[in-house]
């Protein structure tokens, strides 16, 4: 049996645990950006970006890279290493329209993005610097 205690309740679209087990990442309809909590549920920060709306997709890659996307904007962003800002990775200039989910495959070095409006999947080769 488990002894459970409610720490926080928010409406979410996605949540993920950081690879180090210390942070919880949350996106949702009542959250205007990427919310970061500590493992106890304490709010650490909210990171917003003017080009990102209706956040739905969230992925924490094996090497701790955090990606987010929103159906309201043709943009996929990555959280910087300092966890202080979101950096644009892919946008509408290459055919992205309404990203719903995003996954980085380290095995194939591909960023895979599912689109809601067109019901299509885009796959991009990622060249790490």
Description of the molecule:
By secondary structure, the chain is mainly beta. The chain has one domain (14-125): Methylamine Dehydrogenase, Chain H (7 Propeller), CATH 2.130.10. It is built from no helices and 11 strands. It has strands at 14-17, 23-28, 31-38, 43-47, 55-60, 66-70, 75-79, 86-91, 99-105, 110-115, 121-125. The strands form 3 sheets. The chain has a 4-stranded antiparallel sheet with strand order 1-2-3-4, with no helix packed on it. A hairpin with a 5-residue loop joins strand 10 and strand 11 (121-125). The chain is globular and about 45 Å long. The termini are far apart.
In short:
InterPro entries: WD40/YVTN_repeat-like_dom_sf. This protein has 129 residues and is mainly beta. The protein contains no helices and eleven strands.
């Amino acid at each position: 049996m488990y002894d459970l205690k409610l720490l926080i309740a928010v409406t979410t679209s996605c949540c993920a645990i950081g690879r180090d087990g210390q942070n919880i990442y949350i996106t949702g309809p009542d959250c205007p950006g990427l919310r970061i909590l500590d493992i106890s549920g304490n709010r650490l920060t909210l990171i917003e970006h003017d080009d990102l709306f209706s956040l739905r997709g969230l992925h924490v890659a094996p090497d701790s890279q955090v990606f987010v996307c929103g159906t309201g904007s043709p943009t996929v962003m990555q959280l910087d290493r300092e966890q202080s800002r979101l950096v644009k990775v892919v946008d509408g200039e290459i055919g992205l329209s309404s990203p719903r989910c995003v996954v980085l495959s380290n095995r194939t070095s591909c960023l895979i993005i599912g689109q809601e409006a067109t019901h299509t999947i885009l796959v991009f080769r990622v060249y790490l610097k």
